[in-house]
Amino acid sequence: MINAKTKKASPSIDEWLREAKAHPAALQEGMFLVHNGVVRQTPKAQVRQGLNDGSQVKGMEFSYDAAKVDAAIAETYKLEGIFYIKVWLNEGQLTIGDDIMYVLIGGDIRPHVIDALQFLVGKIKNECVIETELMQA
User: Fold this and answer.
1) What Å distances lie between residue 83 and 3, 29, 79, 107, CA to CA?
2) How far is residue 121's CA from residue 37's CA, in Å, rounded to a whole number?
3) Is residue 5 over pLDDT 70?
4) Rounded-to-integer distance, Cα 69 and Cα 65, Å
5) CATH of domain 23-39+62-129
6) Domain boundaries, the chain
7) I need a labelling partner for 61 at 20 to 30 A (CA). Which of 2, 22, 38, 51 fits?
8) Which pLDDT tens digit goes with each residue over 67-126?
């Protein structure tokens, strides 16, 4: 169900990285990657499937299932070489350029961290969130 809450303030990635580097697992990590999803003007159908009907996005209703997000994070921790994960998701009515999500992953080597980031962001986008694009009239 779409959550009518107002959008949240975005986190500080600098603060997240300070926390991650102070975490006990930091001694095992050789790389951190950050994903920042934002609301774009181009519709999802155009970007993903090449369907261009001339419409443009003016905003988005966004909500998520916190239990499913927690389960996706737990599953990602089981991947090889992953030692640190932090996720923030917005909610409510968002406008073009607003942050949808931040995901920070720390791990031992580049291939493991890249794979884990793709895995977790994919799980969140495909299984944990409801995104409804609001189209311009």
Assistant:
1) 32, 7, 9, 5
2) 9
3) no
4) 6
5) 3.90.1170.40
6) 23-39+62-129
7) 51
8) 999 999 999 999 999 999 999 999 999 999 999 999 999 999 999 999 999 999 999 999
Tokens of 39: 């609301």
Candidates 123, 111, 133; CA nearest to 2 is 133
Q: What is the DSSP string of the chain?
A: ----PPPPPPPPHHHHHHHHHHSGGGGG-SEEEEEEEE--SS-HHHHHH----S--EEEEEEEE-HHHHHHHHHHHHTSTTEEEEEEEE--EEEETT-EEEEEEEEESSHHHHHHHHHHHHHHIIIIIEEEEEEEP-
- 14 exposure class (CB count in 10 Å sphere: 0-12, 13-18, 19+): exposed
